[in-house]
Amino acid sequence: MEEKKFKRTLVTAALPYANGPVHIGHLAGVYVPADIYTRYLRLKGEDVLFVGGSDEHGVPITIKAKKEGVTPQDIVDRYHHIIKESMKGLGISFDVYSRTTSEMHKRTASDFFKKLYEKGEFIEKTGQQLYDEQARQFLADRYVTGTCPHCGFDHAYGDQCESCGTSLNATDLIGPKSAITGNVPVLKETKHWYMPLDKWEPALRKWILEEHKEWRPNVYGQCKSWLDDHLQPRAVTRDLDWGIPVPIDGVEGKVLYVWFDAPIGYISNTKELLPDGWEKYWKEKDSRIVHFIGKDNIVFHCLIFPAMLMADGSYQLPENVPSNEFLNLEGDKISTSRNWAIWANEYLEDFPGKQDVLRYVLTANAPETKDNDFTWKDFQQRNNSELVAIYGNFINRALVLTNKYFDGVIPEAHDLTDYDKQTLEEFKGVKGILEDNIEHFHFREAQKDAMNLARIGNKYLADTEPWKLAKTDMARVETIMNIALQICANLSIAFEPFLPFSSEKLRGMLNMEKIEWEKLGHIDILKAGNKVEKPVLLFEKIEDDVIDAQLLRLERIKQENIINNFTPRAIATPSTIDDFGKLDIRVGTVLECSKVKKADKLLQFKVDDGLGGRTIVSGIAKFYEPEDLVGKQVCFIANFPPRNFKGIESQGMILSAEDADGRLIVIGPTGPVKPGVQVK
RNA sequence: GGCGGGAUAGCUCAGUUGGUUAGAGCGUCGGAUUCAUAACCCGGAGGUCUCGAGUUCAAUUCUCGAUCCCGCUACCA
To answer: What is the ipTM of this complex?
Structure first.
């Protein structure tokens, strides 16, 4: 495919949600790759902007605030600050890092909505929603809890059940309760605006499926999957008070839905940086927009936000949306709520001066094509056997030798031998390969290419053996050391996008003032006669005890999680023996048990109830082999109305205990009883 | 169950528009060396390219099916 020429590039990185600090998953997935890409373009002298900011609206923030007894603003102030500092600490070189509670953003998002509203791009729909009469407000999403209609979990939220993972509407919940007052809400009519995504489906289809076949397979495939399933209108407003007020006259108590508000943050942040110059980055045809995101955000950045931009009509669509998969930690999913993460701010405290080590490991191990695993042992090994042994060691050798033989003065290069030329030829080739990899978002490979320069350097010294020649042929040693130092200078350029702190440190030792990407591959970067400094170690070995301490910390968190998981839930509202008596609970013997076809979780039972038997369907297929249950006695509720599952009529409900890890264990009598007896 | 992504050396990954002995780094084993952070350099071992079938003169690569992992989705009284 022919390369397009762009005059400027706008790089965005997914807006971190301001309800917690950032962790290595965010860094590996989004911020480090985006930073590498941006630094590379800057180094090439291209016109590039790198924008980001905290995403500070949405219900989880208000809930968290409520829990802590502070305002939502307090929460976002706290985390915005921590996140911003972490980014800075790790050298994520945003040109602007703002937030969606900024005045600029409020105005921008509001205007964006207004324009689409006035163009008639929204559909109005009136529907019933849960309303808390005491708090006098509608209960969106997580403001309402109740029993999940699917799995029976009794602390499901209005938008999702965290037990079974199903997406819900608040009105689906059984026995809904307001999270604000605990009252039972009532249904009340409310009006909302919807974005008709279906209208943009043909345009999106053409744009992605025909014009962007080069996108990563995961991104392209995911988009295709959504488009083939057809897009539905999506609400752009919510009944909440935390967010950007819907800018329509006479509308009160409604805000823009966070998914609509957040991506506009990219625009408002650009505006904040360049109040007069922002538009050309977003609107001119020779601008390239690149969104760095995680795979959970593909639908928003590839379908929904572009649809919004199309509806506006004046914006460019992204040129690429490099999306990474997920990073695991020591074999388990990273989880904010379970504290299973390495937090950026904590890393910076525990490993001062080692920002580049984390950057290096996260890039070397980036989940570019599939989920990947971060382990502390790998972290240590990559530091010790790659950064220290290959890169740091080469720099140290070159500088030690220069100081030893030439008192730190860079010697002249004389006639080059064939071997010298061969070495130089090899390292000149690195530039093109490296560029190609970065431009195609293959940062893992690109970083290897940079490391290859250090390998070439080590081999050069090993093969030419200047420490031996120093006794016989000092002129030759001068040439060798000149070349070795030029390779050092090249390394500081090649690694600048990846390891900016070390590159700077290295430039300090070489007394290099500035660097340009185009100099990569040249051997005249350092002038003979200039001095280099005495070497300090570019990287230091990480000993076992440091790694053991981190592993211990994770082990402790695991233990704590197990303990926390066992905290029994609060006792439910008072009940009576009469309520219990309404349930007809009986014991039955399992006669047959099999998996339900086309369902992952369902088992179909034939249970001897002493009355000729009955069929019961239960969602425990993940925890039992069907044959293991045959002959077992189980408790079931016998007087529920029948219900259909995948075409099978279930005549009752088998009772299970839910263990701390979510496993379901079927309940039965401790000794054999006659099928059909009652449980009292 | 549907859809999407993945499965290549002990580990992390490249790669193949189908074509002689499938690559790299780390690890491992052996050798050499001492300028260097017990580092570097050289060499060896290590792969039925997840499995099965098909197309083909030829399949790790294309097609179909199966298995396993991740995600979305459905079911989950």
So the answer is: 0.90
